[in-house]
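Memo subject: From amino acid sequence to discrete backbone structure tokens
Action wanted: Derive the backbone structure tokens from the amino acid sequence.
How to read it: Take the token row as a discrete description of the fold.
Attached in line: The record itself begins immediately under this heading.
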Amino acid sequence: MKTYSIGEAAKVLNLTPYTLRYYDKEGLLPHIERTSGGIRSFKESDLEALKIIECLKMTGMPIKEIKTFIDWCSDGDNSLQQRYEMFQERKAVVAAQMQELLQTMSVIEHKCEYYQTALDAGTEAIHKHNHAKAASPV
């Protein structure tokens, strides 16, 4: 079974060794093995767990709540309902984030069209003649 040093694991996950040490200190990596010299050794299963941690972080979940999830995982089947509900909540959060990003993209696309039209015409004044509301360059 392949194991990874902290530097190798960090590189695979596109994280820093500092981040992995922080996660370990916060209790997010309860199954990390250490050599007799105290050096962390990461297995594939640890990397998979870290991918889930990073996924949860990307949803905006605080470290404290991620720790709760990790604790639930250690509880086994007793916490299946809590873990399911947590991921349902995360799904709703991500759906809301996606909706916000779609609205942001719509504004950006509109402004790209606005400026492309102005560039094609050689002047922003083209918008003043077409749409009084669209005249704002902001």
